[in-house]
Every structure is written in C-alpha cells, then in structure tokens.
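README: folding subset

This subset contains proteins for which both the sequence and a predicted structure token string are available. Records are stored as plain text. Below is the entry for NUDIX domain-containing protein (161 residues), shown exactly as it appears on disk.
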Amino acid sequence: MIQQYVNWSGQSIKLTWLPQQILQESSKVTSVHGICFHHGRVLLVHVKNRGFNYPGGHVEFGETPKEALHREALEEGYVKGSIQYIGAIEVSHEENPFFIEGGKYPMIGYQLFYKMTIEECLPFWGEHETIDRIWVEPEEVPDFINDHKLAHVILQEALTI
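--- output ---
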C-alpha cells in the first residue's frame, strides 16, 4: 500500500494504491483505466486539455467496470484486447475542506486499473475526446504522465503480471 497527497483543482486529496484488492461495492468506482501494451510498448492517449495519460474514464450507467474499460480503450485509443485486473486507487476526500457532500464524487471513491494486452489496433480517427495516441517504451512513461507517482507504481505492477 502506497499513499500520496495530490492537489487536483486546488483540492488536497489522499490517494492510496491498493494492489490486487477486489472491491465489493462497485457503486464507489468513479473511473477505470488501462495500461495497454502492444509489442512491448505502452499506449498513451492525449485527452483534450489534459495531456497524455492511460486510456480510461467513467463507468456509464448499466456498465460493469470491465465493459467500461473496453469501451474507453476503443473510444480513446482505438484498441481492443484482453484485460487483467491490477488494483485500485482509493481517492479520499476525508481531509479535503472543499469537498461537497452529495456532489459529483463520493467522499471515498475508487479508480480501477487493468492491464490490457492489445489484440487489435484500429486506425486512429480522433472522433471522441482524444486528439492523439502514442506508443512509448515503459521507461518513457514518466516523461509524459506526471499527475501523481502512483501512475508509475501501477505501470510497474502491470509489467510484472
């Protein structure tokens, strides 16, 4: 278990990495993300106004987290593949004085992470919220993703599976 505090939009939020922990309450899952591999390289997508990151997003009503990841990987990265669960980041607003009860996010929510082995790579059309996709060596990921150190811890977990 690794913890880190981050400043997201002026709010101090505690993140805790929970490797391989299975969540029993899917209603607290706020997003899903995939570390997607193709020929040993990692897929990063450039989301408008947010920079490069792993493909992912919110779980839509009626979707399972796995279904959401498959949809997000296709919409953002134009890839399909098999997935394996890695773990979750617990996102805690318990120490956030600006937290709004009953707002968009729960007091404690979870971001689920999966490893995807890409089996089909489709042409990139940029029809959704991503404007580009790139393939990088695993050791190059920190050059592109720097919103929190847990992103790199999760990458290392994915590499060992």
